[in-house]
Design brief:
Layout: H1 2-12, H2 16-46, H3 58-63, H4 76-82, E1 83-85, E2 91-93, H5 97-113
Amino acid sequence: NTKIAISIVLSMFTEMESQTQALGVIWTYTFMASCSVLVYSLFAWKLGWTKAPPNENLLVVIISTYDENENSNKDANELLSVITENESGINAIADDDLASTMRLELESQSKRKGLY
């Protein structure tokens, strides 16, 4: 929505001062909306309204998944430990079911982008 609003402002207003004022409104709205979502998310997490445990470390909650799928419920430290850096700078993943799935997904994304 922000991109659409910016495009409209830049095409509607020809004077630099008018554009600046209108863009200020857009950026203020975007900033306030982002802050509101952040605050709401933190409160919802701490009140136990999410699947993430409220007493867990924030960084662990951010990098973990709390999906219903049994493969995705692995501990964040375990997920981080299976990813290692190999010689070419591409992430090499250990051989377990989740890692194999991740490797296949990365390879298919790379092939689609022409990187593989």
